[in-house]
C-alpha cells in the first residue's frame, strides 16, 4: 500500500481502544452478544477492534434513512421489539418522515498487515458478511469493515402522512425480529470461522 | 498484499472486459448514464471496470430482499417509475413476500496497484459512495466496489398479505424516484472528481 503501517502508532491506538473497551465492558455499556468475538479478535497481536454493533432495529425521523443530521430517535433496540413499542411511537409522531430500519451486525477491525486484513475479509465474505471491504489504509492501521447483509429501510411516514397499514405493523415487526435474530447467528459463525482458521496457525 | 498482481494476467482480463463492454455498447445493452464515467475509467492504463449499475428500482418476490434463489422479478427500472406500474403488479401478485427495492449506483473496478485502488476508494467515499471498499485481491487484480448509500428495502407483501396502504403507493413511488435521481447525480460527481484528481497527474 501507499502508506506502510507504523507499528508504534498502530500499537498505541490498540492500547487506547483496549482501555476504552475495558471501560465499556465494566460499565455494562458493551453489547453482550459481541463479547466473545471481540475478545477473540483483540487477542491476536496484529488485530484490534475499533467499533462494533450486533445488529439493531431503529425507529427515527430524519429526511432520509441515512441522514444523521436533525435525527430524532424513538427506538433503538439490539433485541426483538414488540408491536406495542411501534404503535406507541406512531401515536405521538407527527414527523414529516419516519423510518423503520433494521441494521445488520457491523464491525470495524484495524489490522497491522495487509495479509491479515485480506484473510479477515475472505472469511467474513464467505459466511455472508457480504458488504464487507477494506475501507481505509493509514499509518495507524488497515481498517476492515465487516457488514452482514440483513437490512430493511422502510418508510412509515412520508410527506407528513402515515403510509403503512396499522393492521400490518405486526407482520413488519415479526419479520424484522426474525431477520435480527438470523443476523445475530452470523456473529457466532464468524467467531467459529476465525477460531478455525487463525488459532490453528497460532497467534 | 499477500498476492502480487501479475501484469499479464491483469491485462488479459482488461482486454476481455473491454471487448465485452464494446459489444454491450454496440447492442444498446449498456446503461447510457454510465458511459462517460466507464470510458474515462477504462482509459487509465492501470484500471478497468468489470460490472456496473447506475441505480435502479426493483419489485420482486423472494423470501428475503437479498435472496436471489427462486426470485421472480416483476419490475426492474433504471428510470423513475409510475404508480401505475406498481398497481398492476399488486393486482396480479399472490406471492408470499413481495419487495420494493431501490438499489444505488454500484461499480466494480479492477486496479493494477494498491495505490490506485486506495486513491479510488478515497475519492469515492469522500463524495458519498459511503459503502465502498476493496473486496478482493488476486493475481488478476485488486477489486474495488464503489457503492453509494441511497437504498430502500420495503416489504409490500409479507406472510401472503398486502401490508402497504394502497393510497400510499404514490408517496412511496414519488420518494423512491427522487432518491433514484439524487443517486444518479453522484455518478457525475464521481466522474468530475476522477477527472480533477487523476487527469492533472497524467495517465
Describe the structure.
By secondary structure, chain A is an alpha+beta fold. The first copy, chain A, has one domain (7-192): SSo0622-like fold, CATH 3.30.1960. In chain A, 41% of the residues lie in helices and 26% in strands. Chain A contains 5 helices and 9 strands. In chain A, the strands form 2 sheets. In chain A, strands 3-2-4-8-9 form a 5-stranded antiparallel sheet, with helices on one face. A 4-stranded antiparallel sheet of chain A has the order 1-5-7-6, sandwiched between helices. In chain A, helix 2 (35-43) packs parallel to helix 5. The first copy, chain A, is elongated. The model of chain A has no long low-confidence stretch (mean pLDDT 92).
CATH class of chain A: Alpha Beta
Task: Tell me the CATH architecture of chain A.
Answer: 2-Layer Sandwich
Largest sheet of chain A: 5 strands, antiparallel
In CATH, what is the homologous superfamily of chain A?
tRNA wybutosine-synthesizing-like
By DSSP (H or I, 4+ residues per run), the number of helices of chain A equals: 5
Unreliable runs of chain A, pLDDT <50, ≥5 residues?
none
The share of residues in helices of chain A is 40-55%
Q: Strand order, main sheet of chain A: write it out.
A: 3-2-4-8-9
**Beta-strand content of chain A:** 25-35%
Note the overall shape of chain A: elongated
Order of helices and strands of chain A: HHEEEHEEHEEEEH
- What gyration radius of chain A follows from the Cα positions, in whole Å? 19 Å
Quaternary structure of the protein: homodimer
Chains forming the largest contact: A-B, 40 and 40 residues
Total discrete domains of chain A: 1
Amino acid at each position: 500500500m501507499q502508506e506502510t503501517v507504523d507499528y508504534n502508532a498502530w500499537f498505541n491506538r490498540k492500547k487506547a481502544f483496549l482501555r476504552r473497551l475495558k471501560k465499556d465492558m465494566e460499565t455494562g455499556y458493551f453489547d453482550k452478544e459481541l463479547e466473545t468475538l471481540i475478545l477473540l479478535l483483540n487477542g491476536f497481536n496484529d488485530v484490534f477492534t475499533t467499533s462494533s454493533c450486533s445488529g439493531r432495529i431503529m425507529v427515527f425521523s430524519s429526511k432520509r434513512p441515512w441522514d444523521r443530521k436533525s435525527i430524532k430517535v424513538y427506538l433503538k433496540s439490539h433485541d426483538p421489539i414488540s408491536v406495542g413499542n411501534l404503535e406507541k411511537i406512531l401515536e405521538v409522531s407527527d414527523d414529516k418522515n419516519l423510518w423503520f430500519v433494521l441494521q445488520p451486525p457491523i464491525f470495524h477491525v484495524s489490522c497491522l498487515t495487509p495479509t491479515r486484513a485480506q484473510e479477515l475479509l475472505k472469511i467474513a465474505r464467505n459466511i455472508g458478511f457480504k458488504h464487507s471491504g477494506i475501507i481505509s489504509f493509514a499509518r495507524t492501521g488497515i481498517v476492515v469493515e465487516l457488514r452482514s447483509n440483513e437490512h430493511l429501510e422502510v418508510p412509515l411516514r412520508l410527506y407528513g402522512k402515515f403510509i403503512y397499514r396499522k393492521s400490518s405493523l405486526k407482520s413488519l415487526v415479526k419479520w424484522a425480529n426474525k431477520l435480527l435474530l438470523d443476523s445475530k447467528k452470523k456473529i457466532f459463525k464468524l467467531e467459529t470461522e476465525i477460531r478455525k482458521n487463525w488459532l490453528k496457525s497460532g497467534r
